[in-house]
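Let's practice the habit of predicting before peeking. Look at the sequence and jot down your guess about where helices and strands might fall. Then scroll down.
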Amino acid sequence: MTPLTSETTPAPPGARRSPTTFGRAFWVLNSIEMWERLAFYNLRVMAPIYIMQADNPGGLHLTAADKGTIYAWWAAFQSLLPIVTGGYADRFGYKRTLGFALTLMLLGYLMIAFLRDVGFVSNYLGFFLGIMVLATGTAFFKPSLQGSLAHHLPREKSSVGWSIFYWIVNVGAFIGHYLPTIMLGLSVLLPGWLHAAAHSPGAWRNLFLASAVFTSFNLCLLFFVADVPSGASKTETILQVLRRTLRDVMEPRLLAWLAIMSCFWLMMYQLWDLQPNFIADWVDSGSLATGLNWLPAGLYAALVEDTPRGPMIPQQILLSANALFIILGVVGVGWLTRRLRTLTAMLIGMGMATLGILVAGWTMNAWILVLGIFFFSLGEMATGPKKIEYLSLIAPPGKKGLYLGYANIPVGIGVYVGSKLAGHVYGHYGEKAMLALRYLAEKTPFGADKGWHGDMSQLETTLGIARTEAMHQLQQITGLDPVAATRMLWETYHPQVSVWVPFALIGVAAAMALWFFGRAARKWKDMDA
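Done guessing? Here is the structure:
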């Protein structure tokens, strides 16, 4: 088997770098990445709640299966299109491709904001179309920005450089976790047509408009970026680029690595895509909220929300611990792992992330949840930057954008399959509203004569109770308050086992497969692995 080359592309004209510092272009590109991630996470951390959370007043109130379908296609467009778009970024130029990508992303955010309650477009279809446009823009954005960045990183600074890039990503992500709380709660203070009640459809619109504004900043920053030659042929037609792209990805060793990472990212994304609903349904952060009552009233209101179970820390703020831990540690972890083989560092990261996602999902206690997020974040720090570094190192000359486009394949496949799996698993065994209906059908006189036969999709019809009213009806019939009713459902149905054990097992399988892959890489004398 012919080993993948690990040559680095010569520095393009105007991209001279000192051995100890990064150039201006490196920092401008990282700034563009930060604003893009800020806009993206402002949407992403709240999308699970907006789509399906039964007790959110301004959300769409779709089902877990609907959410799974939206997320699956979101992943397919955003992470599988770069298989092609990376080659196009090499062929047509990184700066031109970035401008096209940012324009599409801006349009996507505007569609998400305004395609709701439009007569000829259902709420599901309006959100879905906006997400597809956004995802397509992101598919062009990632390889073009990362390909340009790769040309400004000498091999000897690759590990630290990509760790800095990952640090910048999480600065945007961290801020993006806090903006939704402000936008959703304080839209009542905005003037004119932006004025909206807290957590109302208008407040959600303002949230998505904020992402559009942040994206527009990047269109301005793009004027300060000088394009760099990719080294790829500029005479190929679009079809020739597509043919070469599909041919290169069929390299057997690359395919094996992509398959392993697909399983790992299937598990990883559940922290960001499934955990928000799990936290909103089950986790009790009341003690954390009480511990913040010394804060000024305005700041306290921004960090704590009133729920039927009492004051709680919003899920997006709890999950911001992931970005915070990475901001604090990723450059250090990159420095510590700089001499490790990339596959070895990734294997360690897989083990830590799998442990973290199991700990985070095994509890109703917010403190233990944060501990699990800490373990998960350590794993992400060791795996995420190394994934990009590995492909940038083995990319042949003139194909960095192409290979960094391949980096998105595991995310696309993993999130597509994982979203469909999570939609089924959570809708049947984890969502509190559905388990409340199940309890009414199985455990109370109210459901005894309803004739329910175990089909979760028929629960609402059989009982005549909507998901949005399930917990209220359960409390009325059992006489329990929201906290006691939630605890009863947890102890009766053990959603933590049904939801998180399958994903943890997939993470373990991926780590074992990578271990075997690493042993094979040593036999191939793949020094970059």
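How did you do? The chain has two domains: 24-229+244-429+496-523, 432-493.
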